[in-house]
Amino acid sequence: MAWLDVQPGDWFFKDVTEASNIQDEDGGFLIASIPYNAFEGGSPYLYTEITSQGQSVFTLDVSIVPTSDNPLFVYIDGVQTVYKSVEQEGGQTKVTLYSPARQGAVGSFISLGTPSVDRFGKPYGDTSGASYPSYTLSKAVNYKYDKFSRNLHEQVTAFGKLLRRIDISDADWAGNVQNLLEAKIKYNTDVYTISPQGVMYVPYNLNNVTCSITYSTTDSYAQTTETFKPTSAKVLFLNRFFPNAQINRAEAFILVNKLMKIMYQRFTDVTPPSRVIDETFTAYEGQVAFLTNGKYPSGKNELKVWKNGTLLTYSADYTETSDYSVTLNSPLSSVDTIRYFYERSKSDTLVDVGEDTKYYNTATSSYIDVIGTASGSWWASHILDLENEVLSDGSKMVSGTPVTSTSTHEGQKVVHVDNDYNPISGSGDTETWFLPYTHITRAEGASILNRFRKLCMDRFL
Q: What's the CA gap between 427 and 429, in Å, rounded?
């Protein structure tokens, strides 16, 4: 994976590049981008194509001030061209070339932009509601593709290069399309996919880029070729690492959780620890007990057990012997299949992991929403995965922060923090919070890494 803001001359180039190319077995990357879509004034992202009428002056619909950090690139029919001047006028930009472009030539104008960042060096802006660029084929009703048929193949190009098709089953398309595409496209920039309804989707970077497709239909033996621009009203950018951004507690432990999963997958045949336990096995003759692949709260009837597809009844059919074992009331046979399932949605010890809370910034007298539910937040599921990981000396991998100044607002628990999101002292009862948005110090970073080192020695040596 390549980043726009990680260059060979940077002191961190090698480490970040190596870490960015590490993937787990599910295809997830150890280092992920922070999505962004807001830019500084005068430095917006731009990709536009203008067909020349034989002129040397081209007008862009946005105001761009080229700098050494954010240059303006100009291509005429795919060949990079040096321009003579750039002038801003009335919210537009006029680009003058040294000589007129030929009639019908396509001029491409590109500016990568300067992202808007907050005081912590992280991008800000509303990233909700983004969607992948799409285009509906003109013969979508009769669209047909079969990768095993020589007559029903297709070819898609962008920037003169072939795009790679991502095959998705018809059943998968029945769910949320945006979530499906996020899982399939990921960080790829040269792929496409087409729904059963004949709608093509491409990565964010191909928004408004001229593409070409040659495809087959059921009503003709001849193939159809179309030139088009896939569009989206709102896209995200995933091409920056933001090396100067400060890391918070949630990001630090997400990195640890990803590393832990990679270690389990590389060095064991055991499923990595997870907040979700879902295992199926075939019993041996006379088996009456089994161990679970993870911790669950015994005695609370929150673990579900099925025998040959039939849900068993707690107490009547089995007992929860301990947090890691189950005892059946009658022996199993060698043909019986057992499945057990448990999903932990809330922390046992950390107040803000598993429920929505708020920060109250005492410096600005403002509230900050903290989404903490496992299904709704970007960080809580990772903490729940790691929470039950205990070192040989009894200490936990995930540590909380003592909090004494809290309140309630709009029915949610609130922690009082300073302008850097550190909890302030109070006179209330001490509670343990995770505080995902609070930034870590060098000492905290060293402590987390040392605990992770010890945990790896306990698990893999």
A: 7
Same domain membership, residue 361 and residue 262: yes
Check residue 147 and give its pLDDT.
Answer: 87
**CA–CA distance from 415 to each of 247, 357, 438 (Å)?**
20, 8, 11
- Residue 239 belongs to some domain of the structure: no
What is the pLDDT averaged over residues 443-454? Answer: 94
280-286 CB contacts, 8 Å cutoff, 24+ apart:
280/337, 280/338, 280/339, 281/337, 281/338, 282/334, 282/335, 282/336, 282/337, 282/338, 283/332, 283/333, 283/334, 283/336, 283/337, 283/338, 284/332, 284/334, 285/331, 285/332, 285/333, 285/334, 286/331, 286/332
Whether 119 is covered by a domain: the verdict is no
Number of helical (H) and strand (E) elements in the chain, helices listed first: 5, 29
Residues 289 and 365 placed together within one structural domain of the fold: no
Q: Does a structural domain hold residue 456?
A: yes
Give the HSE-up count for residue 452: Cα atoms under 13 Å, Cβ half-sphere.
Answer: 18
57 CB-near residues (< 8 Å, 6+ apart)? 94, 95, 96, 97
Task: Collapse the DSSP code of 396 into the 3-class scheme (helix H, G, I; strand E, B; otherwise coil) and give the result.
Answer: strand
Residue 225 pLDDT level (bands cut at 50, 70, 90): very high
Whole-model pTM?
A: 0.84
Same domain, 390 and 258: yes
Give residue 379's domain range: 249-266+347-460
- Number of CB atoms found within 10 A of residue 133's CB: 22
Q: What is the DSSP letter of 52?
A: E
Q: How many domains does the chain have?
A: 5
Residue 17 belongs to some domain of the structure: yes
CA distance 332 to 312: 13
